[in-house]
């Protein structure tokens, strides 16, 4: 089963802390968005392996955009 993480708000992708193929644990920070000059971390809701990244550092992203898939 794949878990899709979508962006809760628009902003700039400040830092991506994982890459495809990485194993992650529930609660691990995957990436950090910059929203209105604030850092907003996105944590993994599940333990699994990163199967796809749809964002990269420096991207300007919109609310609801897919960011990471964990399989």
Describe this structure in words.
The protein has 71 residues and is mostly beta strands. It has a single domain (3-70), classed as RNA polymerase II/Efflux pump adaptor protein, barrel-sandwich hybrid domain (OB fold (Dihydrolipoamide Acetyltransferase, E2P)). The chain has strands spanning 3-6, 11-16, 23-24, 29-35, 38-43, 48-53, 60-61, 66-70. It has a 4-stranded antiparallel beta sheet with strand order 1-8-6-3, with no helix packed on it.
Summarize the structure.
The chain is mostly beta strands. It is 0% helix and 54% strand.
CATH topology tier name: OB fold (Dihydrolipoamide Acetyltransferase, E2P)
Overall residue-averaged pLDDT value: 97
Beta-strand content estimate = over 45%
Helical/strand content category = mainly beta
CATH homologous superfamily - what is it? RNA polymerase II/Efflux pump adaptor protein, barrel-sandwich hybrid domain
Number of domains as seen in the coordinates: 1
Low-confidence stretches: none
The total beta strand count reads: 8
Distance between the termini: 6 Å
Radius of gyration: 11 Å
Instruction: Give the neighbour order of strands across the main sheet.
Output: 1-8-6-3
CATH architecture: Beta Barrel
């Amino acid at each position: 089963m794949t878990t899709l993480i979508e962006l809760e708000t628009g902003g700039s992708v400040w830092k991506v802390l994982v890459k495809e193929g990485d194993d992650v644990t529930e609660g691990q920070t995957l990436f950090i968005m910059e929203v209105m000059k604030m850092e907003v971390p996105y944590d993994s809701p599940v333990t699994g392996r990163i199967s796809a990244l749809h964002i990269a550092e420096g991207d300007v992203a919109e609310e609801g955009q897919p960011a990471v898939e964990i399989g």
